[in-house]
Amino acid sequence: MVDVLSQNEIDALLAALSSGEMDAEELKKEETQKKIRAYDFKRAVRFSKDHIRSLTRIHENFARFLTTYFSAQLRTFVQINVVQVEQLPYDEFIRSIPKMTILNIFEAEPLEGRMVLEVHPNVAYAMLDRMLGGQGNAPSKINALTEIETTVMERIFSRAFDSLQEAWKTVIDISPRLEGMETNPQFMQIVSPNETIALISLSTKIGETTGMINLCIPHVVIEPIMSRLSVHHWFVSQKKTRAPEEIEILENRVSKAKLPLVAELGTSSLTIREFLGLNIGDVISLNKQVDHGLKIRVGDRLKFIGSPGSVKDRMAVQIDEIVSEGAEEDYDE
């Protein structure tokens, strides 16, 4: 990256050259010298700045969807925001999180491999307290989860993955599925320690409780779709259009679809005793006058008003009126 000097810095540099404090020849020598940049093979750069920006956009949407979901579930004030998106070795991520935390291990087909949604105990226990009828306060001492608490936690976060699916729709249709829950990071090894991961950190506030939610996505998991995370793919890709042959096949199939068509002569109310006592030749009076039109339903929707009749010794119905959308109540007796 090229450094841009301010006007004050330019003036100071010119003054130093004029007074002889700095030598222009020495500056030229420094520029011509070969610059060496250290590269740490343990921190391999797998995600470009373009990829990081795309991941940031995706998970800003994820944060908004999570805020809506948790606000509805917990019925309290929830605020979730993306703090940063960075790449680092998996081992460094494991060492950076608490020894006792909530680790939701999940898969997202068609992507191959496992990912982790790590929730700080303050946030997780505040959610648990709220779900079990409390005020949403985090306990002063974190204990191991009971079976009931584990079940409640799994239900909360398995549904939260719907928000992740919605956020990733612009890139790929995924189906996140919770595989298991761990509380000790040392027992969780989803990739090799030196594998590069994308770490999305979300600051979370539930009532008065604050904490972090971290989403760990190994590079090896999303490597097959890395090209879709580029700006070129987002803005240059065009909408797919169906070929004329596909449209014709689709129209042909829809035109052959069968729908139930029912003409209602009217309705009547009977007691169980009256119904059981019906015999051949009995007359049931309906709630509709003879000169009133018949309701013709397609499926369970009222679509037409018609008149009864016959065609070639077969009963028939003539359509007299088309019912507009939402006007069904006008035809109720």
From TrEMBL:
GO terms for molecular function: cytoskeletal motor activity. Its main location: other. InterPro entries: CheC-like_sf (IPR028976), Flag_FliM (IPR001689), FliN-like_C (IPR001543), SpoA-like_sf (IPR036429). CDD domains: FliM. GO terms for cellular component: bacterial-type flagellum basal body; plasma membrane. Gene3D superfamilies: CheC-like (3.40.1550.10), SpoA-like (2.30.330.10). It is found in: Bacterial flagellum basal body; Cell membrane. Keywords: Bacterial flagellum, Cell membrane, Cell projection, Chemotaxis, Cilium, Flagellar rotation, Flagellum, Membrane. Residues 253-323 form the Flagellar motor switch protein FliN-like C-terminal domain. One of its GO terms (biological process) is positive chemotaxis. It is a peripheral membrane protein. Belongs to the FliM family. This is Flagellar motor switch protein FliM. It comes from Paenibacillus sabuli.
